[in-house]
Design brief:
CATH superfamily of the largest domain: Glycogen Phosphorylase B
Distance between the termini: 31 Å
CATH class of the largest domain: Alpha Beta
Number of strands: 12
Shape: elongated
Strand content: 5-15%
Largest sheet: 6 strands, parallel
Oligomer: single chain
CATH architecture of the largest domain: 3-Layer(aba) Sandwich
Structural class: alpha/beta
Strand order of the largest sheet: 9-8-7-10-11-12
CATH topology of the largest domain: Rossmann fold
Order of helices and strands: HEHEHEHEHEHEHEHEHEHEHEHEHHH
Amino acid sequence: METGGAERQLALLAEAQHARGRKVHVLLMRRGSNLDRLSRAGVPVHQIPARPRHDPRHLLDIIRIAKQTGATIVQTWLPRMDIVGGVAARMLGLRWVIAERSSALAYSDRLVDRFLRVRVGRHADAVVANSDAGLHYWKERRHRGYLGTIPNALPLDEIAAAKAADPESLGLSPDSPLIVYVGRMSPEKRLDILLDTLEITCAGGASVACLCGDGPRADWVRREITSRNLDAYVKLFGFRPDIWSIMKSARAFVNLSSFEGHPNTVLEALACAVPVIVSDIPAHREFLDDTTASFVKPDARCVAEAVQSIVCDPALSKARAAAGETVARRYSVDAAVRAYDRVYERITEVR
């Protein structure tokens, strides 16, 4: 239950299902910040030891907990559990739902996911993807059960209640437009292009930036900020519980990913009424258009021009923010819970 978007979506869904009287249990190997939401809501959580990936004791742990809790449906949320959780579900004769959180490019260099996960996953009763690209991945692999999409959900009331942060409290000048990035610090997020962009936009304090998140490239990003003499203008934070407040103080939100599922942080930025600047990839085009976002090529000058267009044009910024808020309202947690209920009913009736 670490800081990723997939973990946050699991926490939001389980909390809402529990509140509506569903019998939900969450099994995990590692604790993290998203566990707080489950604890506050009273969702039963079962932690098993974080052993090596192919340790057969994981299978025994899942079977034991499934029997203890009287499970009727197993829903696996990340690739590692799609394999071992899926095998456990099949051995117990339980319904099984895979929650696909990404798309084909996420698995291009992961042989276990490309072959073993797919071989096991073909036997799931349902695959629910959060994007068309994720759904297409399983269609191409001839999945035998139900295939459908349920987009990521937003806690809209909580986001609406957040107050904008004071830039000075973030260690940044309140007189310069704030640019925000939130997400995993990993290669597919194209942080190299983002830093090249910030060298242009933040020159001389023309703008400032907050980069929030953690991951394998965090240390590299920190070194690059220093080597490019950006420390006064660009702040690197890890996980921030006040991310919506930071977003609400921003003039632009940037996401340059080379691939995505259904990006949580872009949706959250829309709900915070921040104009978004995003890479021109199918995952972004799936729910955004030219009235709600600036689409950019993977080129720093192109991105910098888009940022400056938003920052320097209040009318454009206001129009984008309003259009984005309208889009965000479609993605309530209640809608996601109802959609998953329909999937559970469908696979129960089929079998």
